[in-house]
Fold this sequence. Notes:
Nucleotidyltransferase, domain 5; globular; five-stranded mixed beta sheet; 2 domains; binds zinc ion; alpha/beta
Amino acid sequence: MINTSPSASIPLKGNFLGIETSCDETSIAVISGGKLTANLVSSQDFHADFGGVIPELSSRAHLQIIIPLLNDALKKSGLALKEFDAVCATAGPGLIGALLVGLTFAKGLSYSLKKLFIPVNHIEGHIYSGFLMEEKPEFPYLVLVVSGGHTLLLLVNSFEKIIKLGSTVDDAAGEAFDKAAKMLGLKYPGGPEIQKHAQNGNPERIKFPVADLKGEYDFSFSGLKTSLLRYLQKYFGSTKDSVHKNLNQHELADIAASFEHAVIKALMQKTEKAVKNYDVKSISLVGGVAANRKLRNAFQELSVKHNKKLVIPALEYCSDNGAMIAFRGAKLFELGKRFSLDYSPYPGLLPDHFS
Ligand code: KG4
Ligand code: ZN
């Protein structure tokens, strides 16, 4: 279990509980007295044995850990349940069974404690996760959301207005890393594995294609994935076993580095185009893939080149966490948004979510 060290100041009044169970991390966080006082994350590492997240096992694991995790978070923050102003939980997008565990738990708590219940959109949690840092984004800002399920380029005008500039038309960036890792015989989640092997590789060795789509700010990663498959079939055989047997560490490093390079190039091309065309104050990189070191460096260079403030959350706020859910929920509370206990979880992004 990961626990976040004392955090930056978060200018919010009140006490908020944040519950995240959208996929394979159970996380409970507390924001209290303008600080994040707990952010406990329990990762379901056992999915690695299956090469991906098994939804039913995920729901069961959330169920098992959620109450002990809550008790630990309360102990850590020194608050009693009755002291909270609202209970915030991820409502979607995510695995429906996993979402149901956290959302129903939050509803039960809020009903029994007579406290407000605030459903939070997971992607909005990521979008505003930069506010958990000491140096916060300034509106309007451009944010690239890169996770296992989503790749979105957004213009964030305020805590109430987000405009979608582009998104992936097929696989998400994280999904591309996960699928590539699987083809290379590496374990799940694939992003950190590809990053690790890419460290010693030559990113220029293989020229994987970078899609240029009609949609000005859209992304596509399925062609890249297919071209990796073709490359492996051509040089290392057509079965997983033959790839595994014939691929040495040196070649693996070059393939991983070249693949990582192509994903980052695709992400940066569209992001830079948006930085040029929109007059933003800050740029931000969020979501699980934002943990990628070379992508973080590319954003650093972009921010210097275009003289923009850069906010990339610390690693513990890039992967799924309750802190971002508590923050977004607390903001919705502050904005006067109120929700009924009838609110249902949703597996995908709502069609009208971003204008
Ligand atoms: O946001 P997240 O924790 O969960 C979702 O909401 O999807 O993102 C998980 C994704 C996975 O696809 C994982 O492979 C990727 O983030 N990821 C990375 C790195 N660390 C995690 N991708 C590239 N480089 C990394 N260092
Ligand atoms: Zn996420």
